[in-house]
Amino acid sequence: EVQLVESGGVVVQPGGSLRLSCAASGFTFDDYTMHWVRQAPGKGLEWVSLISWDGGSTYYADSVKGRFTISRDNSKNSLYLQMNSLRTEDTALYYCAKDPSPTVTTITLDYWGQGTLVTVSS
Amino acid sequence: QSVLTQPPSVSAAPGQKVTISCSGSSSNIGNNYVSWYQQLPGTAPKLLIYENNKRPSGIPDRFSGSKSGTSATLGITGLQTGDEADYYCGTWDSSLSAGGVFGGGTKLTVL
Asked: Do B105 and A44 touch (CB under 8 A)?
């Protein structure tokens, strides 16, 4: 059974930093592109970032470019999101998701975690 | 404001059919596959349709997807009260700011 479990969400002050983690199991982690998607309270989905199976390709939404860094450790079946210079508008539930597509430029998110809540507030 | 445009809400009676539209441009829907997601209240999104019109295993054939030009459509037939949820379209955007994009979401009410 595929499982994605996010962690690391907390309350942090504006300008602070945070690292989210996503532990994957039930599939061959290093075969797949992985994504972070966020959802602000009461709002829609916002794509944040993706990383290819080997970490060789990464993409970011303009809203987080230069502040967030996606990475993965295939030996630990884990996905990460390093979040710096946090803003109040980064407050959201952050999901990690698996993508079975053979190319990074196709968005097909077939499994999602339950999310971890990041609150940026003073 | 979302790159992909969806109606904020749609409604229909049980047993009826509903369609949800998703409008984009040549840099996203026009040249890339579209996927659709269902988000029931308080839960993570679930993949309904991928590569415009394919259903993952376990998704009933009441759900269908299509694409024409720079627009895509999700169809749901035989509506059930359990279909009440938010629905999102998603795709890749190949513009200078390349990345994934979602529609703003459509709230389906089954009257």
From this structure: yes
